[in-house]
Design brief:
By secondary structure, this protein is mostly helical. The chain has 16 helices and no strands. The structure holds fe (ii) ion (2 copies).
């Protein structure tokens, strides 16, 4: 039976012998220091805390005002949630919790059959490399938000959604791992692939460079150059990395799904895509708020470079994963869709479209991203799915 005070402690603790406490604290019965404290020793501690509060003069602190909150460089107490300045951020958090799932919820049995007996060599190449790219990307996304971005936010409602996002990125990594393991792929080889395939590494390298540009400990967002660097990194991750590369990154698998193949994996990716759509939306909203509060905007040349670099990397990637034909999908469609979605992200950011005239090459993609969870979820849920109650510690 679980002990809720200490989940790893399965048996109730035995009461300590009184004598051991009083006379021989260093006996074979190890007694935690806090257990030896009597009422007499605790009281001075409490008194000291109370007097410390008086020294801090907390009673004279002004209440937090919403208008004092800032995305970065805020001075309002970051430990106080309300009053909200960014109620939309809190709503993102509430909505994110409506998309709760785990990869174990989805039946993968047919995918094993499809992969080994129905997919062509070219389709297996697509499947493996898409997973190899995505799994590395999601770790990068998690590290970006959790290590580089969240600590710079100075309003708790922003941090709370980002905490959820960090969890979701970890969940996505688990999902890819679950697919890779279930299908029976060589995990070591798949995870290492981004390091040996230049066309995959090209995208990872760009993201790593952006992450490292804002992960440094001497980052000072009151310095305009550092703030500009942070803004560009944030735009890259929201609008390109999540808004285009993730958003379009699932579509080769969705193309298989549309032909009745790898439907379990595709359904997993639909759940991930719902998260990613929110990550992108939140990121762009936060970037716009940041620009307004700090009176800053991205340098047009830097933006142009960002789009061009992203397009070149996506082109090389598309040509690699789709080096041979598969039915209903090709590299040119993939790249054109990247340009089309990049224009959408630019409009959301209120900046110039980078690829005027780009056409929607995958008109079914938006529909695919709007999965009707309630219907699909219960139809496909595996019956032997275990909940937390089945866990053994
Ligand atoms: Fe993700
Ligand atoms: Fe994400």
């Amino acid at each position: 039976m679980l002990n809720w005070d200490d989940p790893l402690q399965t048996q109730p603790r035995k009461p300590e012998p009184e004598k051991a406490v009083e006379t021989t604290p260093q006996t074979t019965t190890q007694v935690a220091p806090e257990q030896t404290q009597t009422q007499e020793t605790l009281e001075p501690v409490v008194q000291a805390m109370l007097s410390g509060m008086a020294d801090d003069d907390s009673s004279k602190l002004e209440p937090v005002r919403a208008e004092d909150k800032r995305v970065v460089n805020g001075l309002a107490d970051v430990n106080q949630l309300a009053p909200f300045k960014y109620p939309w951020a809190w709503n993102y958090f509430l909505n994110a919790n409506k998309n709760h799932w785990t990869p174990l919820d989805i039946n993968m049995a047919q995918d094993v059959q499809d992969y080994h007996h129905k997919l062509s060599d070219n389709e297996r190449h697509v499947y493996e490399n898409v997973l190899a790219y995505l799994t590395t990307s999601d770790i990068l996304a998690m590290r970006n938000v959790g290590l580089a971005v969240m600590e710079k936010m100075s309003a708790p409602e922003l941090q709370i959604y980002q905490a959820r996002q960090v969890y979701e990125e970890a969940l996505h990594t688990w999902t890819y791992q679950h697919c890779i393991e279930t299908i029976g792929l060589d995990q070591g080889e798949i995870y290492n692939r981004y390091r040996v395939v230049p066309e995959i590494y090209g995208k990872i390298k760009i993201a790593n460079r952006r992450l490292n540009s804002v992960l440094r400990s001497d980052m000072d967002l009151t310095n305009r150059d550092d703030l500009q660097e942070f803004l560009m990194a944030y735009i890259f991750f929201a609008a390109v990395f999540e808004g285009c590369w993730f958003f379009n990154g699932f579509s080769p698998i969705f193309a298989l799904q549309r032909r009745g193949l790898m439907k379990g994996t595709a359904e997993q990716l639909q759940y991930i895509m719902r998260d990613e759509v929110m990550h992108c939306g939140f990121g762009i909203r936060t970037v716009k708020q940041l620009m307004q509060e700090e009176n800053i905007s991205p340098d047009p040349e830097a933006l142009r470079h960002m789009w061009d670099e992203a397009e070149a990397a996506e082109k090389a990637y598309a040509q690699y994963i789709l080096r041979g034909p598969i039915l209903g999908y090709n590299a040119e469609d993939h790249l054109e869709q990247f340009r089309f979605i990049a224009n959408r992200r630019a409009r959301q950011l209120n900046v110039d479209e980078p690829f005027p005239g780009a056409q929607c090459a995958l008109p079914w993609l938006d529909e695919q991203s709007n999965i009707r969870k309630e219907k699909n979820f219960f139809e496909t849920r595996v019956t032997e799915y275990q909940t937390g109650g089945g866990l053994s510690w």
